[in-house]
Amino acid sequence: MDIFTWGRSPWGQTILQHISWDLFWASLFAGLAFFVAHASYMYLSPHRKREAEETDAMEAARPELPPKIVRHGAVARLFHWVMAAAMFTLLLTAFLPVVGVKFAWVVWHWSAGLVLTASILFHIVHASFWLDFRSIWVGPSDIPELKAEILRELGHDVPGPKPGKYPLGNRLYHLAIVVAGLAVVATGLLMMKRVRTPLFTREPYMLGDSTWGVTYVTHGLAGVALVGLVIAHVYFAIRPEKRWITRSMIFGRITRREYLEHHDPDRWAVRTGD
Amino acid sequence: MAVIRDVMPAFELFQPASVPDAQALLARYGGNAWVLAGGLDSMDWLKDRIKRPQAVIDLSGIEALRGVRQRDDGLEIGAMTTLTDVVGHPVVRERYGILMEAAEVAASPQIRNQGTIGGNVSQDTRCWYYRAGWSCYRAGGNICYADTPESINREHAILEADRCVAVNPSDTAPALIALDAQMVIRRGDEERVIPAEEYFIGPSIDITRMTVLQPGDLLTAIRIPSAWAGASFYFEKIRDRNVWDFALVSVASAMVTEGNTIQRMRVVINGVAARPLRLRAVEDAVRGKTRTEDTAKAAGDLAIQGAQPLKFNAYKVPLMRNLVKRAIRGTEASGAAQLRGYDSQRA
Fold first, then answer.
1. Buried-state track A71-92, b at ≥16 Cβ within 10 A, e below 16
2. pLDDT of A112-142, one tens digit each?
């Protein structure tokens, strides 16, 4: 399996061009393999399910909480779905031609890329000033939660820390998406200087051959990483025990029972007036 | 033109005697096979050591691929029929004169004796940056050396450029599209017949190919229906030299008139994009119009809409406009198809 493709410059130099499409197939396989492995594990392994009486008792202890709790505001949901549409358009326009579906993909690709860029910029501003910016990030303080989550996944009954607003898996996924997304956007914007668009004057020599090669390779690596990440995201979104999260991304709210069952009220405090 | 670096690289040479044998070889070698028709484009690639196929499949021994056959609805021309044989066929000369004209101005007499119609429509672009073996978009890279501020791009595209600005070099391709020809392609046991217009593809669809042919595909014949037989044809090829030269721009049209009114028309231009362009907007605009100077002028102006010349090929815009005008007027004697140089820029 090749990782990179190399070419020859007019001066006879060997130059890096882009990733090998073998990596796309590897990422697709990895994403699907994870899907099968995780689904099999969840089906076959014992998982403790909280007794209904336990949750009943938690609800009874917090009668001041509203029956519906806002998890994602309308603006945050709009960003998520716009970004999702842009991401699917980008992946389909990038990889359908690779698998043999030929069409004029370039305009669709950079157009979706601009939508993604705009939505990310909006999200950064929105999350920085209007949302709890720190709630989505991971850090050393999350290690106890990581240990507890691993033990729970292995079937142990662990009383350890529960998540704040976002489960640890969500936050790790967000981190991966941030790295891959920013890499793909930054390199994609540079690559737009090489194609004809109504927005920029073409400047194919803006960077040297080697730098262009690194740019294309970074774009490709981030792109194939996103294939695996998106497969994992869609898989978790449709898993039965995660659908309450998916519903909240559609309708915005979760029930009081879901809040108490899955979150630590000390780490995600809900105003009783909500 | 690329420098000939050495003798040809080693490859397995196969000379099948039948289409099934050729298909079996194509299936076995897939993308590592090189189909050799007349060998005129192929030898450049092989001697320059730019293309290094594992196997070369020489079709010259397959008699079934040669000859012009009459069908109930027109003609079928075997893909290995030489351009000289196409030009000399009486039915082609009598009813499909535009194809005769286009084939007759390809390259030189010696090349037409060896070159085939299948090879002529399937040949690769003449962009010298690409043919020099550099890693441009068309060669799988990430740059077009012909579309930079320093490029010498006098022969390149003014329309439909999408990263790559190479143009299609075929003389017969626009004539075949004007005649609504059908391309017969075999792959394994399957035979598919596609319009000539769809046979050629631009870089937006597949930047590394000029045609829809994929590894394993074999163009076996070209069928020309009788729908445009005996129509009023116009073909003109503008080139730098009178013989042995590729078109800077060429135009091919077929027109059916009633009195002086245009009933229907197909007009195709080549040398301005990576595929021959059928000018549907022009066809629609002139349908039902009288064949006058005003109609010709309007058609010419319409044809060039969207043209984006590069640094050195802006001359192609008036050239294209005036060739379309001439196709509407039909004023240049059909069959002349000779050097007219830049008179065509003055219409």
1. bbeeebbebeebbbebbebbbb
2. 999 999 999 999 999 999 888 788 888 888 8
Say if residue A154's pLDDT is above 60.
yes
> Hey, are the CB atoms on A196 and B135 less than 8 Å from each other?
no
State the smallest CA–CA distance between residue B180 and chain A in angstroms. Answer: 23
CATH no. of B65-122+168-227: 3.30.465.10
Find the closest chain A residue to B308 by CA distance: A196
- CATH fit for domain B12-61, picks 3.30.43.10, 2.10.50.10, 3.40.190.10, 3.30.420.40: 3.30.43.10
Q: What is the Cα–Cα distance from B334 to A143, expressed in whole angstroms?
A: 83
- Kind of pairing between the strands at B182-187 and B218-224: antiparallel
Chain B CB contacts of A10 below 8 Å: 132, 134, 145
Cα separations in angstroms, A248 against A73, A239, B254: 9, 14, 62
The model carries a pTM of 0.87
Cβ B162–A106 below 8 Å, yes or no?
yes
Q: For the domain bounded by B230-346, which CATH number is listed?
A: 3.30.390.50
Q: What confidence tens digit (pLDDT) does each residue in B14-41 have?
A: 999 999 999 999 999 999 999 999 999 9
Do the Cβ atoms of A18 and B147 come within 8 Å? no
Structure tokens that stand for B232 in this block: 């009023």
Q: Search chain A and give the residue with CA nearest B146.
A: A204
Break chain B into its structural domains and give their ranges: 12-61, 65-122+168-227, 230-346
